[in-house]
Write a structure and sequence with these properties.
Winged helix-turn-helix domain-containing protein, single chain, elongated, WH-like_DNA-bd_sf, Arc Repressor Mutant, subunit A, WH_DNA-bd_dom, alpha+beta, WH_DNA-bd_sf
Length: 101
Amino acid sequence: MKEYIRHINKDFESRARLGIMSVLLVADSADFGFLKEALQLTDGNLASHLRALEDAGYLQVLKQFIGRKPNTRYQVTVQGTAAFRNHMDALERLILTNKHQ
């Protein structure tokens, strides 16, 4: 069991970060407003989690203008995809191992 726990990534321990990564892996990319509404987070809470994931190299930030309005989109990086999949695999192995013992 310790072997599986060792592979759990602390960067994805919160509900918010699990949600962000899950949404972005399914949607390919999403803007701040969509993530805020989908995950029911405040601006500040979402921004801090996005920044942490960006700082870890898991998200790419795409800034653009739509008309005259600024729009910030987020996309999972290759590194982020690999890290999140490894995290989810570790959780699955931990659950399945404990279930069969």
